[in-house]
Amino acid sequence: MTTTQPSPTAAGSGASASDAFRASTERRGSAGTSQERADRLLSRTLAAIHQVIREEEVSYPEFQTVKRWLMEVGEGGEWPLFLDVFFEHEVEKVAARTQRGSVGSIEGPYYLPGQRRLGSVATLPMRPDEKGARLVFSGQVRDLDGAALAGAEIDFWQADADGYYSGFAPDLPEGNLRGVIVTDDQGRFEITSVLPAPYQIPTDGPTGALIAAAGWHPWRPAHLHLMVRADGHRQITTQLYFAGGEWLGSDIASATKDELVLDPERQADGGYTAVYDFVLEPA
Ligand code: MBD
Ligand code: FE
């Protein structure tokens, strides 16, 4: 890559993601898992790994390589990235079994709480020369009966047109392309932003090294992240993708769903509009 700007390093974004995760677990509380269930989950997890070692005849050098790699994941702060890319999608699908309302997807490692609160028609905080085609994303938040949810919050975050998230890359202003949009009395919102670029897992860290070792690609399709919440309703966490987007069929994080693909409409001025409505079930 030829660039005059410092590019984000795996270690830099990993450390920030680890700090963000530690803060979020303090907010969300403990799992309350019993000793009996811990025994069962840990025994089954170990047995699954033992089976691979036996059946694939894993060698001592391979075992030591894994040990070194695990140490590097911790040192580089990449546990949130690695776990969210390769495991969160299954946890989300289990949770989705008992959920109604809008389809969810994984949160990933780059959510930051406490962003600027904005009105129902809002432009996200962005740089004066923010790169990328304009995107006007609008819709309505309703309950299961179709009633509009006024004062609902859309907690929104996305990568910029280079694929970088503010808070996790150098030289991006704090809060860039993040915000909490509050719906109007009809439950409506309209967010002006830019089209994000696809996201590449940092290639200079241990997660990137694992992906390269296996010959996989390190890309997620371009996406928007949001949480939608309203009093008395279950909060949803989801992502929205773009029809025809590169990597849509091979997301490294396995987090795409057919219901979550926007079909943006190109406008005469070169920008795009996209519409998506959200439905929340009772809490
Ligand atoms: C991302 O941007 C993301 O959304 C997920 C789930 C994992 C890594 C980077
Ligand atoms: Fe993301």
UniProtKB/TrEMBL annotation:
Family annotation (InterPro entries): 1_2-CTD_multi_dom, Catechol_dOase_N, Cchol_dOase_actb, Intradiol_dOase_C, Intradiol_dOase_core, Intradiol_RC_Dioxygenase
Entry keyword Metal-binding: yes
Keyword Magnesium listed: no
Keywords of this entry: Dioxygenase, Iron, Metal-binding, Oxidoreductase
SUPFAM superfamilies: Aromatic compound dioxygenase
Family annotation (Pfam families): Dioxygenase_C, Dioxygenase_N
Cofactors demanded by this protein: Fe(3+)
Region ranges (Disordered): 1-37
The Intradiol ring-cleavage dioxygenases domain, residue ranges: 137-165
Biased composition (Low complexity): 10-23
Family to which this protein belongs: Belongs to the intradiol ring-cleavage dioxygenase family.
The protein's name in its UniProt record: Catechol 1,2-dioxygenase
